[in-house]
Design brief:
Blueprint (H helix, E strand, L loop, with lengths): L2 H23 L14 H19 L3 H22 L5 H9 L7 H32 L2 H14 L28
């Protein structure tokens, strides 16, 4: 994969992990993804709750909060582009690959191409919004973000720790694990 694509993906995923992770760690919407696709109203409510939680956690001022909202807006635009603009769109598209007797390789490649193009087109705005938000933070706020990413970022967002092993999130890493 080209270096710029890797960097774009890493920046986008990191920004998403920051926002989703802070919300999740603060008692965010634990139903996310468990009961089918969320409606636009549910998504808006979730974004508002996440913005409020992140604002409290980082003690954001009004300008910083505006930058956070702008980042959320850009991330939502990228999510919509990735899903084809429909709630549950990606899930349905992936399900369609196995709807027949054989895996639809051509359709899978088309989906990959579409998603790559969506990332390529939307990522500059997401990266710019992420940079504007992060660069507006005071050093102590930036440090909180770094600490959060060290604790919860990366594969740990999906129930795996930094090494990708289950059970290493929420303070249950190897150093906290009981001896076997």
């Amino acid at each position: 994969m080209k270096t710029w694509i890797k960097r774009t993906l890493i920046a986008t995923v990191s920004a998403g992990a920051l926002i989703a992770g802070v919300a999740y760690s603060q008692g965010g919407p634990h139903h996310f993804g468990r009961h089918g696709p969320m409606s636009e109203a549910d998504m808006a409510q979730m974004r508002e709750r996440m913005t409020d939680r992140i604002s409290k956690e980082l003690a954001l001022d009004a300008t910083q909060k505006q930058y956070l909202v702008a980042l959320g807006t850009q991330m939502e635009a990228q999510r919509k582009a990735m899903s084809g603009g429909q709630p549950g769109g990606m899930h349905e598209q992936i399900k369609s690959l196995i709807a027949g007797n054989q895996f639809d390789v051509a359709k899978a490649q088309t989906l990959v191409n579409e998603k790559t193009e969506a990332i390529r087109l939307q990522s500059p705005q997401v990266i710019s919004a992420a940079a504007t938000f992060f660069n507006s933070l005071k050093p102590e706020q930036q440090q909180k973000v770094r600490e959060f990413m060290n604790r919860r970022g990366g594969p740990g967002m999906m129930g795996h720790g930094p090494e990708g092993r289950p059970g290493e999130h929420r303070g249950h890493g190897p150093k906290d694990a009981p001896a076997r």
